[in-house]
């Protein structure tokens, strides 16, 4: 039965070189919890079910939920322009500044360059300062024309909450979600996390030298929690307790140009997909050496959260989901496309060149008809990630696959053009324009 996952968890972390993991799931009216491995390989701290992990961008669904509470209170609508709540809000394009809406922030269509990691200090005004700094950041795409994952947009949403409630985002989170749900193991600041057992991220099997992201990124990805608390949050989106109509957040807002990475569409905060005819709402998160996934299946009532603190964490959580949902609900997790042994002949030359957005530079090169993809991190986090080069293999005319060095899973990249003909590559849920 599904309880056997406790044994499998230890086997899977070994297979995917994950130092430690915790898993919690709600199924059939019962909560199940498991843990395996180590929270810190140097300190020798065993993983336990009550330890806190950084859940990264899963935090975005929490911030979106807090915004929806404001909508239900009548303080704004999803189509309220951000500038109506934040009169000081400013982007490089005055027209976008006036027009961008709350909805566009929450479904990643604002066009704001998403991976802008600006350290504005540890003070309670760090979110306010971050939003002010966006005035100098170039846009990634025109407003509303496509989906591109946007951390920055969720920090702006966090600032909207601060202004509406007159308090820090951290406190809005506690009062709006943690306290109503009785979550005792969910915190945002490291000085609070230190009161609990907590995981440290790992790279190449060793603890990373940096705890996590800068505090300014809080609304986009700084929640730390045990999986059972994350499951309780997921259950509230099925059973109530936070919103009058949580299903409003599951309504599709935009198609994802590359539907093979996370899901087919974005709702309000949630990623939307379909497995074996069942709607699945989910979100993942990555910080410095840590990873988390949350899946909710409205049709069966199953909620699953799994965390990892290093290794091949994305492939690991996918393997957990594949086995667990087959056992619990008889659902098949759609496999990622992989190249055939005899890939189709596709002319790579039109795609060759440099694609760049804030935080990343992607170079597609062609030699003797074979393609390579080089991925470089830029900006504040450049020092944490070495450039990686992978073989780039066609699956069909616009769909390609590659494997990051040291991993076994294939990742996908989709080439597409905007209505005005501007070429983009879409990978990792992000749209990146061709610049050369």
Record field, number of beta strands:
22
SS class = alpha+beta
Q: Average the pLDDT over all residues and give the rounded result.
A: 96
Unreliable stretches: none
Rg, rounded, reads: 21 Å
Q: Numbering strands along the chain, what is their spatial order in the largest sheet?
A: 3-2-1-14-13-12-11-10-9
**In percent, how much strand structure appears in the residues?**
25-35%
Shape call: globular
What composes the largest sheet? 9 strands, antiparallel
- In helices, the fraction of residues equals 25-40%
Distance between the termini: 54 Å
Number of helix segments?
A: 12
Topology overview:
Blueprint: H1 5-15, E1 20-27, E2 30-40, E3 45-46, E4 53-54, H2 59-72, H3 82-85, H4 94-99, H5 102-106, H6 126-133, H7 151-165, H8 169-181, E5 186-187, H9 190-193, E6 202-203, E7 206-207, H10 218-221, E8 224-225, H11 227-239, E9 254-255, E10 265-266, E11 271-275, E12 278-286, E13 291-297, E14 302-308, H12 313-329, E15 353-357, E16 360-367, E17 370-377, E18 388-394, E19 399-402, E20 411-417, E21 423-427, E22 430-433
Antiparallel strand pairs: 1-2, 1-14, 2-3, 4-8, 5-8, 6-7, 9-10, 10-11, 11-12, 12-13, 13-14, 15-16, 16-17, 17-18, 18-19, 19-20, 20-21, 21-22
């Amino acid at each position: 039965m599904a309880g056997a996952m406790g044994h499998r968890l230890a086997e899977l972390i070994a297979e995917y070189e994950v130092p430690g993991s915790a898993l919690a799931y709600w199924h059939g009216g019962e909560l199940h919890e498991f843990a395996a491995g180590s929270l810190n390989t140097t300190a020798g701290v065993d993983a336990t079910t009550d330890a806190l992990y950084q859940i990264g961008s899963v935090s975005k669904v929490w911030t979106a939920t807090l915004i929806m509470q404001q909508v239900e209170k009548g303080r704004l609508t999803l189509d309220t322009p951000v500038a109506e709540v934040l009169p000081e809000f400013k982007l490089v394009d005055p027209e976008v500044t006036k027009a961008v809406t709350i909805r566009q922030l929450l479904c990643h269509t604002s066009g704001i360059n998403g991976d802008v990691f600006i350290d504005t200090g540890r003070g309670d005004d760090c979110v306010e300062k971050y939003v002010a700094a966006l005035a100098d950041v170039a846009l990634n795409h025109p407003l509303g024309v496509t989906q591109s994952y946007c951390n920055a947009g969720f920090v702006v949403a966090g600032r909207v909450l601060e202004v509406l409630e007159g308090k820090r985002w951290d406190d809005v989170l506690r009062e709006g979600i943690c306290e109503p749900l009785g979550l005792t193991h969910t915190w945002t600041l490291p000085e609070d996390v230190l009161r609990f057992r907590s995981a440290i991220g790992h790279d190449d099997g060793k603890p990373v030298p940096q705890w996590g992201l800068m505090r300014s990124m809080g609304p986009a990805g700084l929640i730390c929690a045990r999986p059972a608390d994350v499951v309780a949050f997921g259950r509230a989106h099925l059973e109530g307790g936070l919103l009058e109509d949580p299903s409003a957040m599951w309504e599709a807002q935009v198609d994802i140009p590359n539907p093979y990475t996370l899901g087919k569409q974005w709702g309000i905060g949630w990623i939307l997909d379909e497995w074996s005819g069942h709607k699945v709402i989910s979100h993942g998160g990555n910080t410095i050496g840590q990873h988390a996934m949350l899946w909710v299946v409205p049709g069966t009532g199953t909620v699953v959260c799994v965390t990892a603190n290093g290794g091949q964490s994305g492939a690991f959580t996918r393997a957990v989901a594949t086995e667990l949902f087959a056992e619990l609900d008889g659902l098949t997790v759609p496999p990622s496309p992989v190249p055939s042994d005899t890939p189709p002949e596709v002319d790579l030359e039109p795609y060759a060149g440099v694609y760049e957005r804030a935080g990343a530079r992607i170079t597609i090169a062609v030699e003797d008809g074979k393609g390579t993809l080089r991925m470089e991190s830029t900006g504040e986090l450049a020092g944490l990630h070495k450039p990686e080069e992978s073989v780039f293999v066609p699956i069909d005319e616009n769909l390609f696959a590659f494997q990051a060095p040291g991993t076994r899973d294939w990742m996908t990249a989709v080439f597409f053009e905007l209505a005005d003909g501007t070429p983009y590559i879409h990978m990792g849920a992000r749209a990146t324009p061709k610049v050369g």
